[in-house]
Amino acid sequence: MKNIIFLIIILLLIPTKSSALNLNNLKSKAKKDVKKVEKKITKKIKPLIIDMKVSDVSYNPIKSLNTLTITIDFNGKNPNKIGITFNKTEFELFANNSFLAKFYNEKTIKITKNGPFYFQEKAEISLLTAGKTIFNAIIKKNAIYTIIGRYFINTPFGEFSFDAKLAEKEVNKKEVK
Fold it and tell me: Is CATH 3.40.1160.10 what the domain over 47-171 is classified as, yes or no?
C-alpha cells in the first residue's frame, strides 16, 4: 500500500508534456493580454506637457577641470485623470542630436492628476565629450536641446521602465526671412 501511494505521488510530481504545453500557452496568452492592456492605456493617456529651463551653470576647476554642472528646472502639467509616481529616473541630454550627458535621479517624483508639477535635476557635463557640440552651438548661435528620460515605476508585478522624450527646446531660434 505504501508503495502504491509513493508511486502515485511521484507520478503527480513529474511534469508531463501536456502540463509544459499548458504553461507555454498560458505564458503566450498572458503576453497577448499585457499588450492589449498597454494599447488601451496608451490610447487613454495623453502626454505630459513639460518645459525646461537651465537655472544654474557652475564650474569648479578645483573639483574637476573637465566638468561643468548645470541645474535644469522642469515645469509641467499633467492633463490626465490619474497621477503617477516615478521611483527613479535616468536622463540623457543632447544638443543638436549629439550626446552631452547622462544623469540620474534616485528621488521619487510625484506627478498629481490634472495639475502642474515641478522638479529640478543637476547634470554634470564632461567638457571633453561636449566641447565640440557646445562650440558649434555657440558659433551657430542656435541649438536644439533634447532630454530623453527613462522612468521606473514600482508595481505589484515588479519594476517597469519606459523611455520617453521628455523635452525638446530650441535656443536662439533662427528667424526665417
Answer: no
Q: What is the pTM of this model?
A: 0.62
Output b/e per residue, 84-100; b: 16+ Cβ within 10 A.
bebbbbebbbbbbeeeb
Q: In whole angstroms, how far apart are CA 171 and each of 8, 54, 98, 114?
A: 75, 11, 15, 29
Task: Give the model's pLDDT for residue 176.
Answer: 44
Write the pLDDT tens digit of every residue in 50-61.
888 888 888 888
d(CA 37, CA 22): 22
Cα-Cα-Cα-Cα dihedral sign, residues 137, 48, 58, 107: negative
Residues in the chain predicted with pLDDT less than 50, given as ranges, are: 176-177
Q: Where are the domains of the chain?
A: 2-41, 47-171
